[in-house]
């Protein structure tokens, strides 16, 4: 990694345009990745509201057409948005400029610590803590995966891989600690009734959209 940084310093002196291109690509990738984290955190919040409603609603209740305040519908919309972000991430991979900065970024993304978080995740812990996220508290929320999936490992073997992220406006623990919920403006606007239910679940106040 130190060798890659040395190459980047040399390239910055002699080919600054290439370094700017690599930095721009990394910025776009990180923005898309952060949006994915926000969507997964929203889905997790909505799942809690959906389960709570199902527990309270008797089985004999008449079925209703899902509306904007229905958590199941909003989960589907968030999942569709997340799928689009995954495709955008794949497109960015094909468009990645070569160079020492993107090589270092790949190293951080593809190497994991003993707890299976990526080294990129490790690098972002301080920023999360400074912004008031869970890395600055003892809850350890960021150390738990937002979602898990199976990754082929050769032959018929598959291993469980976790998606680890950091806090956004959709993190329920942050809502509780901040005392308010202002939905992430990058995501589809929530019906105020549903947003208020999320805020109530996390014992905070809904303060509206940006």
Automatic annotation (TrEMBL):
<feature type="region of interest" description="Disordered">
    <location>
        <begin position="52"/>
        <end position="73"/>
    </location>
</feature>
<protein>
    <submittedName>
        <fullName>Uncharacterized protein</fullName>
    </submittedName>
</protein>
<feature type="compositionally biased region" description="Basic and acidic residues">
    <location>
        <begin position="52"/>
        <end position="62"/>
    </location>
</feature>
């Amino acid at each position: 990694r130190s060798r890659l940084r040395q190459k980047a310093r040399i390239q910055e002196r002699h080919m600054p345009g290439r370094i700017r291109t690599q930095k721009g690509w990394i910025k776009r990738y990180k923005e898309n990745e952060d949006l994915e984290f926000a969507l997964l955190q929203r889905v997790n919040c909505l799942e809690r509201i959906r389960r709570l409603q199902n527990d309270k609603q008797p089985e004999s209740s008449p079925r209703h057409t899902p509306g904007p305040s229905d958590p199941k519908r909003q989960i589907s919309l968030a999942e569709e948005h997340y799928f689009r972000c995954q495709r955008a991430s794949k497109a960015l991979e094909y468009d990645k400029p070569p160079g020492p900065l993107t090589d270092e970024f790949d190293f951080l993304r593809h190497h994991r610590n003993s707890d299976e978080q990526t080294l990129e995740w490790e690098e972002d812990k301080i920023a999360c803590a400074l912004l008031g996220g869970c890395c600055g508290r003892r809850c350890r929320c960021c150390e738990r995966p937002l979602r898990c999936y199976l990754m082929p490992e050769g032959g018929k073997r598959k291993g469980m891989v976790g998606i680890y992220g950091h806090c956004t406006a959709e993190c329920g623990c942050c809502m509780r600690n901040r005392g308010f919920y202002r939905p992430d403006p990058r995501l589809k606007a929530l019906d105020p009734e549903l947003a208020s239910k999320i805020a109530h679940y996390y014992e905070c106040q809904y303060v509206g959209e940006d």
